[in-house]
Amino acid sequence: MLMQNVSMNYEGENVAGIREVATTAGVSMSTVSHVMSGKRHVAPATRARVEDAIARLGYTANPAAAQMRSGRSGAIALVVPTLENPFYPLVAAGMQDILVPRGLLLTISESNGPGGQDVLRHLIARRVDALVAAPFGLNNKLLGELREAKIPFVTLGRVSAAGGDLVHTDDVEGAREITTHLIERGYKKIAFIGGEKEAGTTRERFEGYARAFGSAGRPLVDDDIVFSQFTRAGGRTGAALLLDRESRPDAIVAANDLIAIGILDAARERHLSVPGDLAVTGYDDIDAASLVNPELTTVENPAREIGRACARLLLERLDGDVTDVTRTVALSHRLIVRQSS
Description:
By secondary structure, this protein is of the alpha/beta class.
């Protein structure tokens, strides 16, 4: 019994597990403990080796011990507009890839709806250790309160309150590429359906659509531009406005895949073939994009890697490896051409 108590007394962790991680990573046991506790500086390259070893071995920290040592809650929050969009659960999965080996708990909340703006203040009051937020539904004043509370945070997209980091892909360029694809395929009347007009994602993807028109020397037509919601129902409603006109479009650029799937619903209800009568494109490349009929042409937005990047930035803040300077991680996108265009 004495030996068992001793074996659990190395900074509150299991010695056997730490020893195996240390051997695999080629570091000392104390270095592994420092990486897992976050209370001492460890060089980023060394920490990456330790985290890789932890992940490969499936080793999990003792979270209760880590919280007692650090005074932290052990909780990281992810605040997103909606969990109905499969993109955000994939972001959460990517965060967990990095956080779980450190013994940290990820909590997920929605911000787009009644009481949505109270979510952030509730999380601040609960003293979460760090937070990732998709800024739609959360204004800069609220994000500024995070900074004042000295809670590290990352925003998904190009807009961040002072003191926070950013992770994004180039939505403008991605939307320009997919619109240019339709132009080059010979479609003449290309409409756009966005989500909520005030959302940063809508603005950036509409800007890409507009740039493609400008490069092709085509004028934007106000009647061909519709703003709805980032949902399947929003796509169906927006498409109805366009497809029931006498001069309907022969292609529609959707601001995300859920909108695009709603457009396919509306086309089917009107007995329009895709892409024969109407080409449709999405954005994000959620799993459903390749499962619907026809399969969606879309832009890959690497949700899981976005989540991993967010978690790494937060851990570097929590470990004290960076100053207050805002850091930006820009990830690549990829045009995926499928049957719908």
